[in-house]
Amino acid sequence: MFSVPALRNAAAMSVRRTTTVSSMKVATAIPAMRRRCYATENGKDTAKEGEEAATGNATEAPKAELTEDVKKMLAEKDKQISELKDAYLRCLADQENVRERSRKEIETTKEYAIQKFAKDLLDTVDILNMALTAVPSELREKSSSLQSELAKDAEKIVDQLTNLYTGVSMTESELIKALKRHGVERENPEGEAFDPNRHQALFQAPMPDKEAGTIFAVQKMGYTLKGRVLRPAQVGVVSDPQ
C-alpha cells in the first residue's frame, strides 16, 4: 500500500508533466498559426493585387481602343477639312472667272449694242445714196449755165426731181420700218386731244371749227420706244375762244 505522502508526490509530478506537455503544444501551435495567418493574409493581398491588375488591364484596354477611335475620327475630320478647303478655293476661283467673263460680256454688249440697229439702217443709207446719185452733177450747184440748160430741157429736170423725191420717200419708209423692228414707232397726233405726257405744245391758236385742247398742227412727229415716250411730238394746240 502506498502512503499518503507518496500519493501526493505522484499527483504533483503528473500535473507538472501535463502542464509541460500542454505548454509545448501551445508553443508549437503558435508559429504554425502565425504562418497560416500570414499565408492567408498574403494570399488575400496577392489575390487583391491580381484583381486590381486585371481590373486595371480591363480599364486600360478601352482607353487604348478609344484613343485609336479618336485618332481615326481626327484623321477623317482632317481629310474632310482638306476636301472642303479645296472645294472652297475652287468655288472662289470659279466665281472670279464668272465675274471676269461677265465683265467682258458687259463691255462687249456695250460696244456692240447697236450692231443690229446699225445693220438695219444700212439699206436705208443705200437707198438714200441712190436718191442723191439720181441728181446729175451739173444740177447739184447753181451756175449761170445751169439756168440756160433748165430753160432748154425742163422735162428732163422734172423727171430727175421726181426720181429724187421717190428715192427720198423710199429712204424715209425704209428708215421707219427699221426703227419699228427695234420697237421705235412714230406717232402723228394731229386731231387728237393734247396730252402733256406725250405732246409738247409749241404754240396755241383759236380755231372756230375745232374743239379747244385739240392738236391742229404737228411740227415734229413723236416717237415711242416700246410704249415709252422717246421724244414728245411738237404740236400746236387749239386755244379756248375769248
Automatic annotation (TrEMBL):
SUPFAM superfamilies: Coiled-coil domain of nucleotide exchange factor GrpE, Head domain of nucleotide exchange factor GrpE. The keyword Transferase does not apply. GO terms for cellular component: PAM complex, Tim23 associated import motor. GO terms for molecular function: adenyl-nucleotide exchange factor activity; protein homodimerization activity; protein-folding chaperone binding; unfolded protein binding. Keywords: Chaperone, Mitochondrion. PROSITE patterns: GRPE. The keyword Transmembrane helix does not apply. GO terms for biological process: protein folding; protein import into mitochondrial matrix. Essential component of the PAM complex, a complex required for the translocation of transit peptide-containing proteins from the inner membrane into the mitochondrial matrix in an ATP-dependent manner. PANTHER family: GRPE PROTEIN, GRPE PROTEIN HOMOLOG, MITOCHONDRIAL. Belongs to the GrpE family. This is GrpE protein homolog. The lineage of its organism: Eukaryota, Fungi, Fungi incertae sedis, Mucoromycota, Mucoromycotina.
